[in-house]
Design a protein that fits this description.
Blueprint lengths: L15 H8 L2 E2 L12 H4 L3 E5 L2 H9 L4 E6 L10 H12 L3 E6 L1 H7 L4 H17 L5 E4 L4 H12 L3 H8 L7 H21 L4 E6 L3 H13 L3 E6 L2 E6 L4 H10 L4 E3 L2 E5 L3 H14 L9 E5 L25 H9 L9 H7 L7 H10 L3 H12 L5 H26 L1 H5 L1
Parallel strand pairs: 3-4, 3-6, 4-5, 6-11
Antiparallel strand pairs: 1-2, 2-11, 7-8, 8-10, 9-10
């Protein structure tokens, strides 16, 4: 694979620095001062990078439209490893975004061979969790969204197997349904703009999902009728595959512009204003006018036995509906960053960054930054023993799940109202 990332793998090691350098992912930290009331997942470095997040920051600060979209593959019961993306979507909606969540049942059926009945069952659980977090917005199943299927077909016209081979490593043995599920995911990302109009769109994902983002940005560009470019003293609107009538409409929209074969030049034009007008014209003449989607990338939540927290490995995760007994057993048996002996722990201190229990607190269980800092300090100083930390973490998880289950019960009816 060109990217050395498999979005469908539960166990893989990703060189984040290499990925950032090779594919142009930028660190999120420089933007944090401009993000009002930045959430814990950004402040704590859980969300580590972004692709073109600036338009989203501007939209949040200026109160202009933007969309937020993510999807969940219903291959198993939801768990704490999924909670980060859910929080990111809910937070962006709270900042003014138009929310969209896809249940990727076509992908689960094609890639994991999950039955349609199970896809529906697991999908309901994911949506219930989202509503329990206060999510407000649209939700849908890929298999029942006919407009999405039409958009996937249009997207597939701009894709070929060379693209899929380069990005995902697909070969002769790859099922066609797997390739079709990729086209559907591209359509998922673009669907909010096709549904209610072009606007910057943020897609919060784990870093393993970057291949989908890169492909969708490429397809979005290919589906545009025009490119709009700032030149020296003028803005040039250049046709890629626009109807001649659309190019004429661009010329007419800007008095004093000059029309040439395949492009219109607007002397002294304001790039954002020209771009907005051109998008409107594209739509009037049957185009989409898509913005290239943006993305934020977060670290994986480490599984309780190391590796990635995955639905395919029950011992690695804490499910939202796990019993207290099961939760306690998993946490007390979790892999930590502690030393081999108590004596070494007191002398050398622990390694919280390698500890699945500490990461539970970092990601979700400790809201107060000062409290988390103290846990980290005490661990590194050899003052906090793993057993004590596990017991305290179990109590936090138990309280969180008890409260969350109540919210899930209260929100379950919303799944049927969508």
């Amino acid at each position: 694979m060109q990217s050395e990332i498999n979005p469908w793998s539960a166990n893989q090691s990703i060189d984040t620095d290499k990925l950032f350098t090779e594919f142009g992912i930028e660190p999120i930290e420089p933007l944090l001062p401009e993000i009002r009331n930045s959430p814990t997942f950004m402040r704590r470095g859980i969300v580590i990078g972004h692709r073109d997040y600036r338009p989203i920051v501007d939209a949040m600060n200026n109160g202009t439209p933007f969309h937020v979209l993510t999807g969940f593959m219903p291959s198993g019961h939801p768990h704490l490893g999924h909670l980060m993306v859910m929080k990111e979507v809910a937070w962006h909606v709270q900042q003014g975004g138009n929310g969209y969540v896809a249940v990727a049942d076509r992908e689960a059926h094609a890639v994991r061979n999950i039955s349609w009945d199970k896809c529906n069952e697991y999908g309901r659980e994911y949506l219930t969790c989202l509503y329990a977090l206060g999510y407000e917005g649209d939700t849908y199943y890929q298999s029942t969204n006919n407009r999405l299927k039409d958009l996937a077909f249009e997207a597939a016209i701009k894709m070929n197997f060379s693209d899929l081979q380069a990005i995902y490593g697909f070969g002769q043995e790859t099922a066609l349904a797997h390739a079709m599920s990729v086209a559907t995911q591209v359509a998922d990302i673009l669907f909010p703009q096709a549904d209610i109009g072009p606007a910057p769109t943020i897609v919060p994902v784990g870093i393993d999902q970057d291949p989908h983002i890169r492909l969708t940005r490429d397809v979005a560009h290919k589906l545009r009728f025009f490119t709009v470019e700032k030149r020296d003293g003028y803005v040039s609107v250049r046709s890629k595959n626009a109807p001649e009538e659309a190019l004429a409409a661009v010329h007419k929209a800007f008095p004093g512009s000059k029309k040439y074969e395949g492009h219109v030049d607007i002397k002294g034009g304001n790039l954002p204003e020209v771009d907005a007008t051109v998008r409107t014209i594209e739509i009037e003449y049957g185009g989409f006018g898509f913005y290239s989607p943006s993305a934020t990338y977060h670290y994986f939540m480490q599984g309780l036995q190391g590796g990635k927290m995955s639905s395919s490995a029950p011992e690695s995760f804490i499910g939202f509906c796990d019993t207290e007994k099961a939760v306690k057993k998993k946490i007390m048996g979790a892999l930590t960053g502690g030393r081999m002996t108590l004596e070494e722990q007191k002398k050398l201190g622990g390694e919280p960054d390698k500890c699945s229990v500490y990461l539970l607190n970092l990601f979700h269980m400790v809201e107060d930054d000062d409290e988390l800092t103290e846990i980290c300090r005490a661990c590194k100083a050899g003052e906090l023993m793993c057993g004590t930390c596990k017991k305290a973490t179990y109590e936090r998880v138990k309280e969180f799940l008890s409260d969350f289950k109540e919210k899930m019960d209260e929100a379950e009816h919303k799944v049927d109202e969508r």
